Amino acid sequence: MRYKKLLAGTGLALFLVACATTTDTQAPSTQKIDPANNQEAMTPAPWEPGFYNPVPMPSAPLNTNKTLTRITFGSCYTAEKSDAIWSRVAEAKSDAFLFIGDNVYGDVKTKDPGLPELRDQYGKLAASKGFAEFRKTTPVLSVWDDHDFGLNDMGADFFGREASEKLFNYVWAVPEDDPQRQHAGIYSSRIIGMEDDKQVQIIMLDTRYFRSPLKPTDERGAKGKERYIPDPDPAKTMLGEEQWQWLRAELEKPADIRLIVSSIQVLADGHGYEAWRQLPLERQRLYDTINASGANGVIFLSGDRHAAGLYKNNMALSYPLYEITSSSLNLPLSAWVKPENLKQEYGPYRMGDNYFEVNFGAIDFDWQARRVTLNIMDETGRIIMAQSIAMDDLLPGN
To answer: pTM here?
Structure first.
């Protein structure tokens, strides 16, 4: 079973949470794109009943001149369950939404190079009425994690990474002239805001396309080493050399706050699942790169874990380093783990308890008071976790 072609279209792109059991979706699209309009249909050979033909999902345009007041973000969403969360995120009224990984669950278990499972899930996401209404009014910027890259826990050794990249650029309507299309992988950066002292840089890292295999645990399921253990091999990489050089150059650009999106956690040290801690030399290189660039205002955003949390490391940089993890939009850990078995993970950098129900993140910017606030919101839009930070505390040398 094979697909005929995968060609990119045009348009605009950018820790564990109880889920409802119905999905409000439109009928699957069977529309073919007219080749006369310089786009070819992504027409698959039939592979099973109910196949959804993926279509581009452009969102409202991002105004990079606007002074940001709020950004929302989230991860770990399945189109197989309720899309009610999009109404709650819309009510939060943000200037943009960052979809930071596991945006669909399309693991290609058939090992078919046409990526049928991934295409199917993208089609179902496009058919979601809730998501369609949300992206009409809110700019959406996307990056992937493993389940929308193509296979659980995969990195550079995933057989379909090039096809997955083409599919990602197509469904998220990344313009042909976008810098993201000028290199392998889907990392990107943008600075939003034109006013002095009110600029936000959003850096979205690709922690999949180039990443070396992780070291399997020697004691599967053991606390702190459940799946993987730290590997000090200097030959292994998280970002790949080209992305590392790109990141250094981006960090040298002027900005007041820098939101660095990593689909997997950076600061968390208390678990043995995927995280930067599993490649300790690469995590140290990340800290060293930030320090050497002189970059101020760095805050990490992450997902992946099916639970939410806040983290702080006072030793990584010359100023306090914060991370906010938001996961999951509709597939929380509590959906498959009994309440009595939901355990708080050990971690020297974790601030307060993790949250195991449906959630999304919100970052608020108070430019007059010079403060940024990290929020975790529950499925009703209520703030259940927050950390306010003085922008002046995020300056090198503090």
So the answer is: 0.89
